[in-house]
């Protein structure tokens, strides 16, 4: 949600979206690129359980899509927040209070899959998982149930989720400590550096060397802030039952 200049954005090099007060991004397996002038931004990130609770649609239908929430029926419940978040002057505390009040006022929905979503999410964070069979065993689900549940609530099939986790662990490790170089940050489940480079192109749309050559003034700070506040540098590595640090 933006106050000031509105960004021009695209996901994975797809159709651009611009001139909108807010954007809604589904589950992602590639980069979101945007350019923006002077603006203030509030971002709200949903973990899979949050998607199941607040978005009435299968996640895979909206995977790797960038949307205007004012035009999509399933996002209608968010429109009052989007339209009423900002006042004439910046008020960070008041805006945060309005965001919290919006979600607190939403009527709780019964989630038959809640325990299985949490089990799958917790299993996905295990760095020792290497195969879909390992994933299914850790989540205590049959393979076909795991496939259905992952697509509906996580947006992608189990194999791609495991591949993304492996990549995100590597990227986060490098961003937190570039002195390791890529060779020291690559996850142990990669067979070799060539496999990592292929995944880098798949998820980032560029080579590792191209990424290193680009500046990351915002992302580096965000990763360190996330690590301090949430215990993980990127959202994909957050615990499914994440609590505020003061509640730990």
TrEMBL record:
Q: Name one GO molecular function term.
A: DNA-binding transcription factor activity
Domain spans labelled HTH araC/xylS-type: 115-214
Q: Which InterPro entries match?
A: HTH_AraC
* UniProt xrefs under SMART domains: HTH_ARAC
User: Which Gene3D superfamilies does the UniProt record give?
Assistant: Homeodomain-like
Superkingdom of source: Bacteria
Q: What is the official name of this protein in its record?
A: AraC family transcriptional regulator
């Amino acid at each position: 949600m933006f106050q000031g200049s509105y960004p021009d954005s695209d996901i994975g090099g797809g159709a651009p979206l611009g001139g909108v007060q807010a954007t809604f991004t589904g589950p992602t397996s590639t980069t979101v690129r945007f350019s923006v002038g002077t603006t203030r931004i509030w971002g709200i990130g949903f973990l899979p359980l949050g998607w199941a609770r607040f978005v009435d649609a299968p996640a895979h239908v909206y995977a790797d899509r960038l949307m205007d929430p004012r035009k999509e029926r399933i996002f209608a419940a968010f429109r009052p927040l989007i339209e009423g978040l900002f006042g004439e002057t910046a008020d960070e505390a008041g805006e945060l209070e309005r965001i919290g009040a919006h979600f607190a006022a939403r009527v709780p929905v019964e989630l038959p899959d809640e325990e299985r979503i949490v089990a799958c999410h917790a299993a996905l964070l295990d760095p020792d998982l290497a195969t879909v069979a390992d994933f299914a065993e850790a989540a205590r689900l049959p393979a076909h149930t795991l496939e259905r549940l992952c697509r509906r609530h996580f947006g992608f099939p189990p194999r791609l989720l495991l591949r993304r986790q492996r990549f995100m662990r590597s990227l986060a490790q490098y961003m937190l400590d570039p002195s390791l170089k890529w060779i020291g940050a690559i996850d142990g489940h990669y067979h070799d550096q060539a496999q990592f480079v292929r995944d880098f192109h798949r998820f980032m749309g560029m080579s590792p060397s191209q990424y290193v050559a680009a500046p990351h003034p915002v992302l580096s700070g965000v990763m360190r802030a996330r690590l301090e506040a949430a215990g993980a540098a990127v959202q994909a590595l957050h615990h499914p039952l994440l609590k505020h640090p003061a509640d730990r």
